[in-house]
Amino acid sequence: MSELDMQKVEQLYGELFGKVEGAMTCALGQLGDKLGLYRALADSGPSTSKEIASATELDERWVREWLRQQAAAGILQYEHDRFSLTPEAEEVFAREESPLFGAGILDSVMGLMQTVDRLEESFRSGVGEPYDSFGKQTAVGIERTFRPFFRSRLIPEVLPVLDGVVAKLEAGAKVADVGCGAAVALVEMSKAFPNSEFHGYDNSRRALARAKVNHTEAGTRNLKIHDTTHERLSEDETFDLITTFDCIHDMTHPAETISAIRRSLKPDGTWFVADIRGYPTFAENLASQPFAGMLYGFSVICCMRSALAVPGGAGLGTLGFPESEARKMAEEAGFTRFRKHDFQNPLNDYYEIRP
Predict the structure, then answer these.
(1) Quick count: other Cβ atoms within 10 Å of Cβ 125?
(2) HSE (CB half, 13 Å, CA atoms) of 167?
(3) Where in the chain is the domain with CATH 3.40.50.150?
């Protein structure tokens, strides 16, 4: 065995321990979100562990150790025996109504971690698992992750940029969201454009259940949810707008879905795509995608796993639908116009695609 560079070994241990700290911080962050600890800190301002324990009706010793871990990890501020969130951290961790809220992703991470042992069989067989097998917590986390964007930016910022779409929606259009998940985007659109009709399509029973709850709570009458195991997208050129939000890369047969979308759109219709920002090669992702490590992790544990849920699945993976692939697959399906938009989202690219 060649002589080891112990300085490099120490550096690797530093990297390893940093990753372990990140895992611990995710786990305790999700717990703090669930127990209302972040919200209590935001509402109370700089507080002692006793004050936060009293506000949340939790045991002080456990709260104290949680606060110390979160401060040591850089999430909380600490000064004179008091812990606090910066205004920015309040938006990200404590204010679920904020467009900047991000703690919902911790539900997904912790839900997915509970399924990792089952990946051993996928590595042997080559076949993954369907989305519903990832559990309720994962589904809740995905809904909470995307909700802030849909509720704060979709109607006022995103749709007005798409050529002629808002005018059609105001007059009365037919819209489908394919892979609609919990239907948060659809609910927002159905409320904003009462003259239009909206249809959500998904095959996840967990997502469909949440979609029905969100629809019922919204009380809109121009929205219908469809289970694609029984009812497919109608390929009859009747839709003015079809959306797919961060789901093409998860699909077992994305090319078939894209072709169905093309056949479902009117000749002057619009397909609006949001998907993960990736690049054509692994080398480019290493160089240009700052979250590549996280995204490849999600791919193995969730996205590619879902896209390989059946033998012969496409298995694109989280970073497998970059602009170049989106253009290629859209062209193969018969689309002729492709326009990229930038809505200042560090994780997503957005495409306006038309026949």
Answers:
(1) 10
(2) 5
(3) 117-354
CB–CB of 122/88 below 8 Å?
Answer: no
Determine whether domain 6-95 maps to CATH 1.10.10.10: yes
Q: Which amino acid is at 167?
A: A
> Could you tell me how many helices (H) and strands (E) the chain has, helices first?
16, 9
How long, in residues, is the chain?
355
Domain 117-354: which topology? Answer: Rossmann fold (3.40.50)
Residue whose token pair is 């611990």: 24
For 131, 146, 276, the CA distances from 348, given in Å and listed in that order, are 21, 11, 4
Per-residue pLDDT of the chain (355 residues; tens, 9 = 90+): 678 999 999 999 999 999 999 999 999 999 999 999 999 999 999 999 999 999 999 999 999 999 999 999 999 999 999 999 999 999 999 999 999 999 999 999 999 999 999 999 999 999 999 999 999 999 999 999 999 999 999 999 999 999 999 999 999 999 999 999 999 999 999 999 999 999 999 999 999 999 999 999 999 999 999 999 999 998 899 999 999 999 999 999 999 999 999 999 999 999 999 999 999 999 999 999 999 999 999 999 999 999 999 999 999 999 999 999 999 999 999 999 999 999 999 899 999 999 9
- Which segments of the chain belong to CATH 1.10.10.10? 6-95
* Other Cβ atoms closer than 10 A to 156: 9
